[in-house]
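Class prep. Protein, please:
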Amino acid sequence: MQAYELFIGLRYTRAKRETTSSLFLADLHAGGMGVLALIVVLSVMNGFQKEIRERMLGASPQLEIVQMVAD
């Protein structure tokens, strides 16, 4: 199924048009969607990392070892 979508995408981007502005806009749109996807993924990963850190550092230990210094 992926080959079909690749065929359609390549056919659309390589098609000769009367104006180059439509091809430019298509390329601009594709690049913008890539940047959008990157921003979303990075935002989700940063939120996930923050949540994991808070849970790990916020947990209280079951046993605490303390060294006592004699005077």
